[in-house]
Amino acid sequence: MRTPNAAEVLSAMDDCKIARLRLVLAASALVIIYLDPSEPDRHVWLTNVCLILYTVYSAAIYAMAFRRRRFSWHVFVALGAADIAFYTVLVSLSTGTNSIVFFFYLFAALVGAMREGSAFGFGLTIISALLFTVSGYIAAPEETLEPYRFLLPPLYLLAFGYIISYWAGGEIQLKRKLALLKELPLTANPRFDVDRIAGVFMERLLVFYNTDGCVLVLADPEAQTYRLHATRQYQDAGSESIEIRSENDCPLLHLSPFGAGVYSERARRFRSGPSYKLCDSKSTQTAERLVQTGSQVAEWLDVRSFITAPMRYRDKNLGSISLTSSRLNAFDLDDAIFLQQIADQVIPVLENVRLVDRLASEGARQERSKIARSIHDRVIQPYLGLQIGLDAVRQSLRSELQEANAELFPAKRLRSVELLEQLSTMTKDGVEELREYVYGLRDSDARQMTMVDSIRHYACQFADVTGIDVRVVNRMTHVTIPDPLAAEVFQMLTEALSNVRRHTKANVVVISLETVKDMLVIRCDNDSSTENSLHPFRPVSIADRAEALGGRTFVWSEDGCTKVQVELPL
To answer: Which segment of 32-46, 313-327, 401-415, 494-508 scores lowest on mean pLDDT?
Structure first.
């Protein structure tokens, strides 16, 4: 899951409209020169040719943008560089700041900031000021070389360019924040548990803030404990989750009652010592105490700056979230305020998912109890009656044989008694197995097999019944599969083995499970004859299940083997 960038954020100005404004700008310069022929005071012919070329260039860009609507990032940068180059040539051919083209530099800064942010727009402003100074120094006559001619205009350009870039960059940053707030609740998938959804949220925040790490502490109301989730921006760093028994074991929770805040190891404006600022103003004693607590948290997290926000839901403090960085002054109060808004958006989603899981678990527990009672009343009781009847028949037959004291077919008579004893023993074993099954249904805390263990257990049973050798290869490491997804995967693999049994003459089946980035890849390979491999098929049931889960199904034949691969998003 990635954070929406500038190209994906809804904007009132697309590349087509920007190209139209560029064309209007060039055409207006031509109209001004036509109405006021004295505007270019030197190199008139050359200036007019360059301006006509820029107008034609702007028209061509507009024609291309009208068909494509949006350019790639590389094309956008090339267009910005071309605009600045044209403006520099036109200004150098005229009288510098007195030229009408001088203010076109601000157009390049505005467009750059609207597309890529304040830093990019101000960078274009600096480049424009440098080019203007150099070109002005080269083109100016020696008798007019005065310091203010090369200092004041670039300063004006830098000042206005910074204001425009900051304003336009703030608008695009605000739109990015709105897009992130809109998309964060949509990333929740009911197939996943709270831990997986929280991990997705944390990864999105890392990308958006471009910071080092994210720490999330959430309360578990059932266990009366906390769960700490930590992840880092680098993919090979991975994520971890540990259990916290009480609030005293997590200094980050000591800051949550005071609201969102930002900590830095060293304050700005040449002030020494750490600082902790709250979004809501507090008393001086509270601020000093929070600085000490913030220093403890920074030492605990091994960072130099962080922002934190409480996770509140229905006036209850359910934890805290923090973004960390090893850089000084990496965050400001605006970042902390927006983090609080994100927390307010995310915590209802997590609580709803937890509620759904709890309702599903409760419903499953009640259904298991109902099935257990039904099995006990309709299956176990008749089994017990059958066992008692068999014991009675065996005892009666043995008594009759002893009373008759006959010697006709004694071996057959003894064999009948042995068969009845075996049948009685089998019935007793069946009753015990059913009782264990019922106990497992009623005991919701009983140990459940993992997905891989269940698949291997079923594969052994399948091999015993069909004679087909089934091998299960597990390449998944440090991955927890949610129960709903595990049930779907198990059902797909049982369907795949059933297809192998019904439609092929295979002797060996290899089932492999692995994770590739954010995908769970399941593959079922079976040896097949040449005629079977010539008729490709599509497992409808498996494909429909995979599609419902947002995945894909592939079927192909290779080296005498039929391969079915399912890719499911995690």
So the answer is: 401-415
Domain tally, the chain: 4
Residue of 61, 51, 67, 68 whose CA lies nearest to 18? 61
CA distance 500 to 468: 9
Quote the pLDDT of residue 292: 85
Q: Which residues are CB-contacts of 454 (< 8 A; sequence separation ≥ 6)? A: 486, 490
Can you list the pairs that 383-388 forms with residues at least 24 positions away whose Cβ atoms lie under 8 Å? Answer: 383/427, 383/430, 383/431, 383/434, 384/431, 386/427, 387/424, 387/427, 387/428, 387/431
Residues belonging to the chain: 570
371 has pLDDT over 60:
yes
In a domain, 1, yes or no: no
Say if residues 509 and 497 touch (Cβ distance below 8 Å). Answer: yes
Find the CATH number of the domain harbouring 559.
3.30.565.10
**Residue 97, Ramachandran bin (φ over 0: left; ψ between -120 and 50: alpha; else beta):** alpha
pLDDT reported for residue 247: 77
User: pLDDT tens for residues 308-336?
Assistant: 999 888 878 888 999 999 888 888 888 88
Residues 376 and 479 in one domain: no
Phi, psi of 184 (to 5 degrees): -60, -50
Question: What backbone torsions phi and psi does residue 319 show, to the nearest 5 degrees?
Answer: 150, -160
The verdict on 230 and 340 lying in the same domain is yes
Q: Regarding predicted confidence, which is higher, 441 or 183?
A: 183
Which range among 9-18, 169-178, 557-566 shows the weakest confidence by mean pLDDT? 9-18
| Residues 457, 435 share a domain | no
Residue 1's pLDDT band (boundaries 50, 70, 90)? Answer: very low
- 61 and 73 part of one domain: yes
- Domain span at residue 245? 189-358
Q: Tokens 């990864």, residue? A: 203
Same-domain status, 469 and 544:
yes
Please, are residues 212 and 233 in contact by the beta-carbon 8 Å criterion?
A: yes
Q: Pseudo-torsion of CA 167, 172, 177, 182, nearest 10°?
A: 140
